[in-house]
Amino acid sequence: MKEKKSTMEELEKELTFKKENFFEVADEKKVKEAFNYADDYKKYLDNSKTEREAVKTSIEYAEKHGFTEYKFGDKIKKGDKKYLNNRGKNLILFKIGKNDLAKDGIRILASHIDSPRLDIKQNPLYEDSGMAYLKTHYYGGIKKYQWTAIPLALHGVVVLENGKSVEVRIGEREDEPVFYVDDLLPHLSREQYTKPVSTAIDGETLNVLVGGRAFKDKEVKEKVKFSVLKAINEQYGMKEADFMSAELCAVPAYNAKDVGFDRALIGGYGHDDKVCSYPALTAICNAETDDRTIMVVLADKEEIGSEGNTGMQCGIFSDLIDVISLSFGVHSAVVRAKSKCLSADVTAGYDPNFASVYEKRNSSLVSCGTSICKFTGSGGKGGSSDASAEFVGYVRNLLDKNGVNWQTAELGKVDAGGGGTVAKYIAKLNIDTVDIGVPVISMHAPYEVISKGDLYSTYEAFLAFVK
Fold it and tell me: Are strands 180-181 and 90-95 parallel, antiparallel or unpaired?
């Protein structure tokens, strides 16, 4: 009887699927590797709060691993390790292998390096009631109330009237000031409390407080505004008109930190999607293979639809595939058809505090590994590329063979909402593509949370895919 029960238990284990917690199945050596990897990732995250900073930080990392800059028109040969810097906001790295492109295609990892934030408007500076503010326009999907009453830093670039480009990064160091968006005190919030959370804070009230010192001169009309203008002129050479040729944004002035007594989690700004960008970057740099041609795309503008000439819809991605193909006498249509892509983007980690919007069986559980998301979209899979069963089968078998902890996921209940990634733009080029990435708690908040186990599992998955 006992023997029969044991046999049934073994059969049940063989036939059923159960998500496994990384920290339960990984040995001490792997857990230590995951924690060490997470320490490096936190540094990357802190240095890459905007897409411009992410490109700069990624180039520095790639160059340390033998990558050199490529520009259209340069010759491409086997063994090359190159990066294409698109306007300082979009980076494509590629490594040319020995294999025949016509047979093997390109292994592509595509993620995005932009994150939700508050963009400073083009004519932003004003004074009111003894305080100076900058007007903003929020970028990407945010809960507006989450961006009030927290310390903010200003990041970006200003092109001065003389054409000189000046980098701005203020509010990160201990000796620097921070910035702030006001909120209404609870004593006067009776009306605000009656509003839906989506309208309790109006977008036009997300004004960044930047000054409060009146300039001592009777001839000056707007004394606080002038104080701010004088300060930024002395520090950056800016005049008020220079805001019109600037890309400035307010981001949380927080550094990434371990979360929890056991330090298994990481809190930080911009996990979406740098928590997938970093594993993609490190995978192409650390892949010990000369056979396969590999490409990593770190794209801009995903949070607003992958638009513009630095987003995933820009033709530069397919142009580069065309050039690589032509360099080896292969038609790019053949190369694309043989290529495979992991759209490296985060998934919504199941949150038991808000269980009503999740379908738990098909949600990604924190610390249960990297998450394959076969389809995204909303309301009947609208806007999704919906990967084929064959390609999902290929990916799951690959991960199993390489001992990667993985699970599957979707973005909440069918009618609860939805979202998208860059996957559909790559799939349109006739490239097999599926989403895979790290589960995130509080996605798009100023401070998101991920698991070190999921981060490392994603790195292992990408390394297995490209090697």
Answer: unpaired
pLDDT tier, 3 (very low <50, low <70, confident <90, very high otherwise): low
Q: Which CATH number characterizes residue 149's domain?
A: 2.30.250.10
Cα(252)–Cα(138) distance, integer angstroms: 13
Same domain, 376 and 280: yes
C-alpha–C-alpha distance, residues 125 and 135, integer Å: 7
Into how many domains does the chain fold? 2
Write down the residue that tokens 């056979």 correspond to.
291
Buried b (16+ CB within 10 A) or exposed e, 2-21: eeeeeeeeeeeeeeeeebbe
**Domain span at 340:** 10-115+269-466
| Identity of the residue numbered 88 | G
- Would you give the end-to-end CA distance of the chain in angstroms? 47
> In angstroms, what is the C-alpha Rg of the chain?
24
What is the DSSP code (8-state) at residue 311?
B
State pLDDT tens for residues 107-163.
999 999 999 999 999 999 999 999 999 999 999 999 999 999 999 999 999 999 999
Look at the block and give the residue holding tokens 């480009």: 165
Q: Which two tokens stand for residue 317?
A: 């991605």
User: Which residues partner with 247 through β-bridges?
Assistant: 157
Residue 145: count other Cβ atoms within 10 Å of its Cβ.
15
User: DSSP per residue over 116-171, as a string?
Assistant: -EEEEEEEEEEEETTEEEEEEEEESS--GGGGSSS-EEEEEEEE-TTS-EEEEEES
Measured CA to CA, the distance from residue 122 to residue 131 in angstroms comes to 19
Calpha distance 370→438 (Å, rounded): 5
**Tokens at residue 258, please?**
């371990």
pLDDT tens-digit readout, 444-457: 999 999 999 999 99
Q: Which two tokens stand for residue 135?
A: 């007007």
| Residue 455 amino acid letter | L
pLDDT for res 379: 86
> For residues 173 and 210, what is the distance between their CA atoms, to the nearest angstrom?
17
